[in-house]
């Protein structure tokens, strides 16, 4: 069985080979949805973060075993090794077999690793003054704050600009649906086949892909609830130019829409937005 690190390296290579994301279209008439207003803040660098632990409760002696972070490069996942942080930590206690079955980290694997006190500065330097993106932030932040408080180093909130819980975003965007990391990967067709075990760096890599997909506005679009149009000032409209398409271009465009209708076996989004149904077009 390949190691977690090998899985993570494979994940990065998959991202490198993936096609570049298409340039997002400008939105003039569609106001932002509530989650976009609350969470889409790009004033600070963004880092996805995940931890693996000895158990579920930092108040009952459980400790951190691994921290994984991925720094985003704007709206893309960086391939620069300096934008990745993975630290295995000696928890100074035994790891229960039932948690090893989840993340694959054994006592033997971390017995010679540094303790949290030895890596705290490296970790805080990496995340300082950034926006952290964490799936179920309460869990990971609770563990990190426990470790920091044991050292008299305050709380994670003292060092970072913002903590964003991507689980809250997903619940708001997809009410009633399964929004675990695996569920979101399945929903957005993101390959998570390397996730044989949970791993902090691998899960941070997957979370980065999920977050960028969720927030680029090209996932599930509710065409029935676009909201009221924003009134554009006449002086702005006067400066806009809209060249007329040629008959050939219009014909080519219709062919493209016909193909889209056929592939989705329904009226494509463009025609729905214009109020054009397949039956109406056929007539």
Automatic annotation (TrEMBL):
It holds the Pfam family RNase_T. Keywords: DNA replication, DNA-directed DNA polymerase, Exonuclease, Hydrolase, Magnesium, Manganese, Metal-binding, Nuclease, Nucleotidyltransferase, Transferase. Binds 2 divalent metal cations. Magnesium or manganese. Substrate binds at residues 50, 52, 98, 103, 203. One of its GO terms (cellular component) is cytosol. One of its GO terms (biological process) is DNA replication proofreading. The keyword Transferase applies. The keyword Hydrolase applies. GO terms for molecular function: 3'-5' exonuclease activity; DNA binding; DNA-directed DNA polymerase activity; metal ion binding. It comes from the Bacteria. Its EC number is 2.7.7.7. InterPro entries: DnaQ, DnaQ_proteo, Ribonucl_H, RNaseH-like_sf, RNaseH_sf. Its cofactor is Mn(2+); Mg(2+). CDD domains: DNA_pol_III_epsilon_Ecoli_like. A divalent metal cation binds at residues 50, 52, 203. Residues 10-20 have a biased composition (Basic and acidic residues). NCBIfam families: dnaq, dnaQ_proteo, PRK05711.1. DNA polymerase III contains a core (composed of alpha, epsilon and theta chains) that associates with a tau subunit. This core dimerizes to form the POLIII' complex. PolIII' associates with the gamma complex (composed of gamma, delta, delta', psi and chi chains) and with the beta chain to form the complete DNA polymerase III complex. DNA polymerase III is a complex, multichain enzyme responsible for most of the replicative synthesis in bacteria. The epsilon subunit contain the editing function and is a proofreading 3'-5' exonuclease. This is DNA polymerase III subunit epsilon. The gene is dnaQ.
